[in-house]
Design brief:
By secondary structure, the chain is an alpha/beta fold. It has helices at residues 19-28, 51-60, 78-84, 99-108, 155-168, 185-191, 200-203, 209-217; strands at residues 6-9, 34-39, 65-70, 88-92, 112-117, 135-139, 173-177, 195-198. It is globular and about 45 Å long. The structure holds D-xylitol-5-phosphate (DX5) and zinc ion (ZN).
Length: 226
């Protein structure tokens, strides 16, 4: 299992009037990736960003763009997101009846392939895909909005998936997303997560973006920045 920890700020809570400056501040403060939450108003109730925003982010930063696709039929938009500059395309198992084909298409587009699952979806649902993915995103809220409360019952599933990955694909990292704060980060890190997505804890931190990132990194002595 890799022993490095990464922060992936979710721009869902950024001030879009200042998007360029906010992403640059996150980068200067030590962000490793930029997390972009794509929602279609069908799979999840909210409607957010498309390839245009990914392309905008690619012009702002050289950090890897971590694109989380909360959309029905993601296959139809994979090429557009890849061309826009996505580094990783993460799809929900709940939206992908032909998951091996979907992963294959993502790799053919020269992107890393991520798979994710909702809090109510068991780890066994992603088992057939684990040998082929570059990232596993474990949702710790039901997707759709930032600022929701962390669901602690998901923590054992992180450990379960880490164990499954160690058997078939040990280099693949686990990312967590939803309600990640300085209070919740230590438990998910201990369970085996290595990439921490946060929107509110970073972009809504009262002392600013840098303070938000530093607070997450300082939340446990076990957080070792690469
Ligand atoms: C939730 C999104 C998350 C969200 C996280 O549907 O996938 O990435 O932006 O927001 P916080 O960190 O505020 O829970
Ligand atoms: Zn997300």
């Amino acid at each position: 299992m890799p022993s490095k920890y990464l922060i992936s700020p979710s721009i869902l809570s950024a001030d879009f009037a200042e998007l360029g400056a906010q992403i640059s501040q996150a980068e200067e403060a030590g962000a490793d990736w930029i997390h972009i939450d794509v929602m279609d108003g069908h799979y999840v109730p909210n409607l957010t960003m498309g390839p245009f925003i990914v392309e905008t982010c690619a012009r702002i930063t050289d950090l890897p763009l971590d694109v989380h696709l909360m959309i029905e039929k993601p296959e139809s938009l994979l090429e557009a997101f890849a061309q826009a500059g996505a580094s990783t395309l993460t799809v929900h198992i709940e939206t992908c009846p032909h998951i091996h084909r979907t992963i294959q298409i993502i790799h053919q587009l020269s992107c890393k392939a991520g798979i994710t699952l909702n809090p109510g979806t068991p780890a066994s649902a992603i088992a057939p895909a684990l040998p082929f993915v570059d990232l596993v995103l474990v949702m710790t809220v039901n997707p759709g909005y930032s600022g929701q409360s962390f669901i602690p019952e998901v923590v054992p599933k992180i450990a379960q998936i880490r164990k499954m990955l160690d058997e078939v694909n040990p280099q693949t990292m686990i990312e967590v997303d939803g309600g990640i704060t300085s209070q919740t980060l230590p438990a998910v890190l201990e369970a085996g997560a290595q990439v921490f997505v946060a929107a509110s804890a970073i972009f809504k931190h009262p002392l600013g973006i840098k303070a938000g990132i530093k607070k997450l990194q300082a939340s446990t002595p076990n957080f070792v920045k690469t």
